[in-house]
Write a structure and sequence with these properties.
Layout (H helix, E strand, L loop, with lengths): L2 H15 L20 E6 L16 H14 L3 E6 L6 H10 L5 E5 L5 E5 L9 E3 L7 H16 L14 H18 L8 E2 L5
Parallel strand pairs: 1-2, 1-3
Antiparallel strand pairs: 2-6, 3-4, 4-5
Helix pairs in contact: 2-4
Length: about 200
C-alpha cells in the first residue's frame, strides 16, 4: 500500500470515529491528513433523504452539483458531509469548515438556505449568508461554490449580491416551517458528520 492510500484509510477512520469533542463540535482532523484544497459542504440531515426539492422547487441534487461545480472550477476539491447533530445552517457550515484542510465550509439546509463559513469563526458569524432560499437560483449556488473556493485559496472575494423580497417570508413561512420540522426530526443528539459519497 502506498502512502496516499494509507492516509486515505486513516482519514476515513477518523471521520467516522473521533470527530467530536465533549462540547459536540467536530475536531479538526490531523493536518497531516487534511488537504488544503478541500472545501467542505455540510448538508442537512434530510437532504436528499426526506427532502428532494428546495423551498423554491429546485432539485437538491442539482443544487449540490452546482455548488460542487463552482468549487471545482476554482481548482479546489468539494467534500460533502451530512451534518446530523443540528438543523442550523450556520452550525452546518462551521462543522464542515472544521472537517477540511482549507478551513472553509458551506452550510446547506434542505430547504435551500446556505452560508459560507470559516472554521475559526463563531458558529453564528459567517463569511456570507444567503437567508432567502426562495430567491436562490442554480446560478447563485454555483457562485456560492466559487466564492467558498476563493476564500479557501486566500483570494480577494466579491460577496455575492443578496436579493431581498419583503414578501418572501410571509409567502413561504408555512412551507419553511414544515421543511425545517422534517429536517429537525432527523437530527441525532451528538450525531457525527457522515462523509457523503458523491461519485455514485
Amino acid at each position: 500500500m502506498d502512502e496516499k492510500l494509507i492516509e486515505s484509510i486513516v482519514r476515513e477512520i477518523l471521520v467516522h470515529t473521533s470527530l467530536h469533542t465533549s462540547s459536540n463540535n467536530p475536531k479538526p482532523l490531523s493536518s497531516a491528513f487534511m488537504d488544503p484544497k478541500e472545501v467542505g459542504i455540510g448538508i442537512g440531515a434530510a437532504y436528499g433523504i426526506k427532502i428532494h426539492y428546495t423551498i423554491s422547487g429546485l432539485s437538491v441534487d442539482k443544487v449540490l452539483q452546482e455548488i460542487m461545480a463552482g468549487i471545482e472550477e476554482e481548482g479546489m476539491i468539494p467534500k460533502v458531509y451530512r451534518i446530523t447533530r443540528t438543523s442550523d445552517v450556520s452550525f452546518m457550515g462551521n462543522d464542515a469548515a472544521k472537517l477540511v484542510g482549507s478551513g472553509i465550509g458551506i452550510g446547506l439546509q434542505s430547504k435551500g438556505t446556505a452560508v459560507i463559513h470559516q472554521k475559526d469563526l463563531y458558529p453564528l458569524t459567517n463569511l456570507e449568508l444567503f437567508p432567502q432560499a426562495p430567491l436562490l437560483t442554480l446560478e447563485t449556488y454555483r457562485k456560492i461554490g466559487k466564492n467558498a473556493a476563493k476564500y479557501a485559496k486566500g483570494e480577494q472575494v466579491m460577496p455575492i449580491p443578496i436579493q431581498n423580497d419583503p414578501l418572501c417570508r410571509p409567502k413561504f413561512q408555512v412551507k419553511a416551517a414544515l421543511m425545517h420540522t422534517i429536517e429537525t426530526e432527523l437530527v441525532v443528539d451528538r450525531g457525527e458528520p457522515e462523509l457523503v459519497n458523491t461519485k455514485g
